[in-house]
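ugh ok fine here u go
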Amino acid sequence: MVITTSPARHSMIPVQSLHVLGTVSFADKEGISKELASTESYNSGVYVFASIQDESESNTPRFVARFFSPGISMEDPATGSAAGPLAAYLWANNVLTYAENGH
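structure:
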């Protein structure tokens, strides 16, 4: 788990497959709140993500993510405040790289 340091802090949690991602459940709001508080980083939620195996020739990394927060209605399907930090996390871990030829 990694804690992002953007203004809206999120715990970034990679999982190994889309199947695992699909089974993630955060039904226990109180438990999530306590766990987030234990990190002492003022997190607003948990961003769980998995890599998509790309069958195309592009070799472009692709991901699917789910955001859970006890402060909202639990799951937010489009969380821009976590998507940007996810890209930074992937860059820092050499998952994303810069290609000079534009590909």
